[in-house]
TrEMBL record:
It comes from the Bacteria. This is ABC transporter ATP-binding protein. Pfam families: ABC_tran (PF00005). Keywords: ATP-binding, Nucleotide-binding, Transport. The keyword Amino-acid biosynthesis does not apply. InterPro entries: AAA+_ATPase, ABC_transporter-like_ATP-bd, ABC_transporter-like_CS, ABC_transpr_LolD-like, MacB-like_ATP-bd, P-loop_NTPase. Residues 15-233 form the ABC transporter domain. The keyword Oxidoreductase does not apply. PANTHER family: ABC TRANSPORTER ABCH.1, IMPORT ATP-BINDING PROTEIN. It comes from Roseiconus lacunae. GO terms for molecular function: ATP binding.
Length: 233
């Protein structure tokens, strides 16, 4: 496969980007320029930088929601350029967003089940799994609540339960605490950290909150679409 020969397999990287650039013709924006980085399996990294520095663009490329204009993204040593991105997003990554993106007319348990509709799980299995996922995020007994009957922090817990429903290898969180007060935000981060530990998941958190960023073992810093610090030793 093109580009495969150049990937660095000497590290236990789960995600690598190789000179990744993303140009948006609309607005004539170079959102990312020549970004190369590696994220180790099981690592907790944060991606920081001012608004507009390219954080979400980078996370979307890693998550297979977008493709680079040039350069390459590798997951577990495989280039995403030739991957089935639908399947990749469904099976390998779990997304968490600032605004939760829960479906308002579905209950918490139904929202959690959304990713499972594409699996072979039966209705009973889906319901059982949703209950245990809700318990895992501290929401036992809330399965029948609609999003509007839950607090922001509780909605984010539902979104996290949904993100981990298919047991992803990597959780990609874009400003997961951005809509929350600092106390519930920190509780969300602690939940993500505990899931990382119990499931050996890799955790990538985009944030501009220093208290959130500093919990990671490493901070990747972007400025004007360029990698200015990869946070390594
Ligand atoms: N779909 C898009 N079309 C055009 N410009 C975009 C698009 N997405 C992001 N951008 C631009 O790319 C730059 C980086 O955006 P983004 O990655 O969202 O930054 P951050 O998440 O760090 O705030 C910004 O100038 C933004 O306006
Ligand atoms: Mg953003």
């Amino acid at each position: 496969m093109p580009g495969q020969a150049s990937v660095d397999r000497s590290t236990d990287a789960i995600v690598q980007t190789h000179s990744v650039s993303r140009y948006f013709p609309r607005g004539d924006v170079h959102a990312l320029h020549d970004v190369s980085l590696a994220i180790t399996r099981g690592e907790h990294v944060s991606i920081v930088g001012k608004s507009g520095s390219g954080k979400s663009t980078l996370l979307n490329l890693i998550g297979g929601m977008d493709r680079p204009t040039s350069g390459e993204v590798y997951f577990d040593g495989q280039s995403l350029a030739t991957a089935n991105l639908d399947r990749y997003r469904r099976q390998q990554v779990g997304f968490v967003f600032q605004r939760y993106y829960l479906l308002p007319n579905l209950t918490a348990a139904e929202n959690v089940q959304i990713p499972m509709f594409e699996t072979s799980a039966s209705a009973n299995e889906r319901a059982e799994t949703a209950n245990s996922l809700l318990a895992q995020v501290g929401l036992s007994g809330r399965g029948r609540h609609l999003p509007r009957q839950l607090s922001g922090g509780e909605c984010q817990r539902v979104a996290i339960a949904r993100a981990i429903a298919n047991r992803p290898q990597v959780i990609l969180a874009d400003e997961p605490t951005g809509a929350l007060d600092s106390e519930s935000g920190m509780a969300i981060l602690e939940l993500l950290e505990s899931l990382r530990e119990t499931s050996q998941t890799t955790l990538v958190v985009v944030t501009h909150d220093e208290a959130v960023a500093s919990r990671a073992s490493r901070q990747i810093v972007l400025a004007d679409g360029e990698l200015v610090d990869s946070g390594g030793a």
